[in-house]
What we know:
Order of helices and strands: EEEHEEEHHHEHEEHEHEHEEEEEHEEH
CATH class of the largest domain: Alpha Beta
Strand content: 25-35%
Helix content: 25-40%
Radius of gyration: 22 Å
Low-confidence stretches: 202-207
Structural class: alpha+beta
Distance between the termini: 41 Å
Shape: globular
Mean pLDDT: 86
CATH topology of the largest domain: Trna Endonuclease, Chain: A, domain 1
Number of strands: 18
CATH architecture of the largest domain: 3-Layer(aba) Sandwich
Amino acid sequence: MSVSQRIWRVGQPAQRLVESRLASEQELEEMIAATPEIISDQWMVIGRQEDTGLGGRIDLLAIAPDSSLVLIELKRGRTPREVVAQALDYATWVEALDAEAVTRIYARFKAKSQEKGDLARDFEARFGIPLDAEVFPGQHQIVIVASMLDAGSERIVSYLGKRSVAINVLCFKVFQHGTDKLLSRAWLRDPVEAQAASSAGTSPASPGLWNGEYYGSFGGRSWEEAVKYGFISAGGGSWYTNTLKLLKPGDRIWVKIPGKGFVGVGRVTGVSTPLTEFKVDLDGQQVPAAEVVTQGELDATADPEKMGYFVPVEWAQTVTEDQAVNEPGLFGNTNSVCAPKTPKWRTTIERLRSAFPNYDSI
């Protein structure tokens, strides 16, 4: 189903705004580079017009909080099918980048604005967490920006998405409102689907099959309280909270505290719920979590976009932070939740089942 966008000025009667256009797609690229929130307020632009060595230049390169890279390609007068093919070709270049290459790309990007770029420093300043050298650069996803998408291209993107390729299309429209121009956007796929596909870690070299068990990253809140009241949580923005929606009642989740190790395994008993609505059991009574749970460092209840979200979990087995299982080679990811499809996840599960022998008690 093709994306359709319309805007009306509120009134009696409502007045539909007339579609307009930008002077060039270069103008849109410049706006995105200066204001990345146009695409996502959870990404940081780190490169622009980089030569791929494949006969072309990428439009924009961004990085997400989990160290995954985001290739952003604008239509630039090509047919949608051409831009999809070009983006897939450029993705092979992105996949081959190592940490040193990405660092150089960022340095060149900052130098264009007469600034000295330090990726590790700027990443931590932007996201509030250090750039994890163990996983950087992580996986990648593709975002195609276009004013329209033909049916054939939509079928291609949908086909790839169903097969866990992290690709999405952002359709934009420009509308005239008096002397002003307004820019609207609409995603072809729910962005959490592409984020989840990226965090799963699949690649043509190791397609892997998901074993049905989820990985969870827990941080910014008391693990002791999470065990006592039965929950996992995330906050600080949609990038962190959206993947909680992947969980459904009955799902098994293995939880890791970044920098510590795996600390628990349990079954999900509910769905993602905002802090203001989530309740926990206290002496047999259901009470608002906000009344008994310590304020998390990522909570911002005054801002719905950054509010903490909770998922109830019945724990099968947990350990304290100082007993966390942390060995070289175990799977790790900073997404709040992901469904890993890498061989490393299967070997990690085998080790964790030995470390948590009661994993299947619930």
